[in-house]
Amino acid sequence: MRPPSSFSCAGALPWIVVGALAGISFFAQPVKFLTPGLTTAQLASVGSTIFHGSHAMQWIALGVLAVVVVPAKVNRSLAWFVLLVACGSLAVQLLLLMPSLDLRLSQLKDGAVPPAAPHHWFYVVLELFKFAALVVLARQRLAPRLQGELP
């Protein structure tokens, strides 16, 4: 058995990010709508707060992945590509979709019923792209020198 390497986090870190994203986006967010006694506006407000906090965490995580994980991968070109897909998805969510979703939330809080719009579905599709990209990054092999195959 080889001793633990200082680079072992390069293998585990992407899976931690995948787990955090899955837990927040695909479990916590949908489950909140099962909470009894809260209005749709209150639930949407909680969701907005969670997503805004999640975006900050994701930018930090993607930055760490760029510094620690991508350089350790065998196929760095693919690693950079999938990381850029994840970053692009997050940027579109934050810069293009969240303002519209926040406006809809504001209308809900004011008691209005906003007209149907596809923004939430676009957000979900981008979340799936981001998730898939991070899974591809996590599944990539580490460079042989990090796996103990080379001296």
Automatic annotation (TrEMBL):
The keyword Transmembrane helix applies. The chain crosses the membrane at residues 12-30, 50-71, 78-101, 121-138. Keywords: Membrane, Transmembrane, Transmembrane helix. This is DUF4149 domain-containing protein. It comes from Roseateles toxinivorans.
